[in-house]
């Protein structure tokens, strides 16, 4: 991890076309007391532009976590997820799918594309909070290890 990641808030990209579901997700994150900065995009094409820093997203941060609905306008969530996993710069970003889809094929395809969690809507808030806290702990551990590695490297170079 780069030096600029140490001590900063978690960057979360929420890809959700329903404002009601987006509001519920944001409320759950506040409830979980996860220090974060969240960006909401409302369709798959907008998410793609954000992730590739195109147009008015040219200075967008790389997300530490993506919360992804599957059935989106303009570009389907599964299509976006497949492209994300094929991109060497973006493939390691953890993705949690939050979807109303009861389709087992969507679940299987998501798991094939290595999502961290797949949650059906309406999302159980306690379970969602537990998942986000678990991912936050992994993210935070990576920051601590990166900081320790940077200190060791700078000390070894002296």
Summarize the structure.
This protein is of the alpha/beta class and 158 residues long.
Largest pleated sheet: 5 strands, parallel
Give the overall form.
globular
- Unreliable segments (pLDDT under 50, ≥5 consecutive)? 140-158
Rounded mean pLDDT is: 78
What's the N-to-C terminus distance? Answer: 21 Å
Number of helical elements: 5
The Cα radius of gyration reads: 16 Å
Strand order of the largest sheet: 2-1-3-4-5
- Beta content: 15-25%
Characterization of the model:
With about 160 residues, this protein is α/β, with parallel strands linked by helices. Helices cover about 45% and strands about 15% of the residues. It has a five-stranded parallel β-sheet, sandwiched between helices. Helix 1 links the parallel strand 1 and strand 2. Helix 1 crosses helix 5. The longest helix has about 30 residues. The C terminus is likely disordered.
Spell out the blueprint of helices and strands:
Elements: E1 10-15, H1 19-32, E2 36-41, H2 44-51, E3 65-68, H3 77-86, E4 95-99, H4 104-112, E5 117-120, H5 125-156
């Amino acid at each position: 991890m780069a030096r600029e990641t140490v001590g900063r808030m978690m960057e979360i990209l929420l890809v959700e076309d329903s404002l009601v579901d987006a509001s519920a997700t944001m409320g759950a994150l506040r409830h979980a007391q996860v220090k974060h900065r969240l960006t909401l995009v409302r369709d798959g094409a907008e998410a793609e532009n954000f992730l590739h820093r195109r147009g008015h997203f040219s200075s967008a941060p790389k997300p530490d976590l993506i919360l992804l609905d599957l059935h989106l306008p303009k570009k389907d969530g599964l299509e976006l997820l497949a492209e994300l996993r094929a991109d060497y710069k973006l493939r390691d970003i953890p993705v949690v799918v939050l979807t109303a889809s009861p389709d087992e094929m969507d679940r299987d395809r998501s798991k094939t594309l290595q999502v961290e969690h797949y949650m059906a809507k309406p999302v159980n808030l306690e379970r969602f909070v537990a998942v986000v806290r678990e991912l936050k702990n992994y993210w935070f551990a990576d920051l601590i290890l990166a900081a320790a590695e940077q200190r060791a490297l700078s000390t070894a170079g002296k």
